[in-house]
Amino acid sequence: MLCSIVVTLWLLLPAITYFLYWYEVASGGERSIVEGRTGRDLKYGVLLSYLTSLLTLPLIILTYPLGWFAFREKGVEEGNSAKAMVICIHGLFHNPSAWLFFSLIARHENLRIIYLRHNPWDGSFVEVAEKLYLQVKEAVRAQKEPVVFIGHSLGGLLAGKIALKLVAEDLPVSGVITIGTPFKGSKLTVFTRGRLARSLDYNSPLVLNSYDDFRNPPFPAIQYWSPTDNMVLPPFSLYDVPDGWEERMIGPMCHVACLFWPPLLKRLCNTVTAFSESRA
């Protein structure tokens, strides 16, 4: 009985999110835009992304407990210098275990990683951003290597906010990388609770003000996004990046699959290296 319930939920929950995705894209007129960008029928992308959701959901459940205790600052081996210090900020309802696969690849790229954590009940977006900023400010001040932020989903908005605050205090930031970040918010926040989660309401004053703040940042900034992201609706919120940002589309996959996809994680490491070398 329990096994049947688990399997049903495993199949059903991703299906519901892609039903909502399909309805939004088809009714909102974005289907032709998405198909034009991907060069393939949207049905193919949705099916493939649904399968990636089925694959990654068990991975998230299995790795989630690691985020409670296993993720602290990760450095290069003693005596080696790091290419850069990478500050990673996870998305809503996740924890630092989101960066498990990235850390495995980054370890071989001489990158020093700091994991910041937050939860939906920490307060408003502004309060959480300030809290994380205070946590990381002294580490950035003391850092000799270039500093690069990477944020997934809501973590991307936090990364941009914190990076701008650091630069305003003449502290160095070499770049910001966001993955699946909803720059205009998401309509799916109506199903969430908590002040931090509701900060992502679609076209809310907070996200629109942040969007304006992010225009023409004093550092290179890149958004990686999937055209079939099932957690950011409408997709327009993903690729309509602020002026001065670059957007790079990746293959069709669900919102969290990008955290486990080795080709993208390798690209992230390469982007960090490019940012650090350009500011060296």
From TrEMBL:
UniProt domain AB hydrolase-1: residue ranges: 86-258
Alphabetized SUPFAM superfamilies for the sequence: alpha/beta-Hydrolases
Keywords, in A-Z order: Membrane, Transmembrane, Transmembrane helix
Keyword field contains Membrane: yes
InterPro entries: AB_hydrolase_1, AB_hydrolase_fold
A Pfam family of this chain: Abhydrolase_6
Source organism superkingdom: Bacteria
TM ranges: 6-23, 44-64, 84-106
Protein name according to UniProt: Thioesterase domain-containing protein
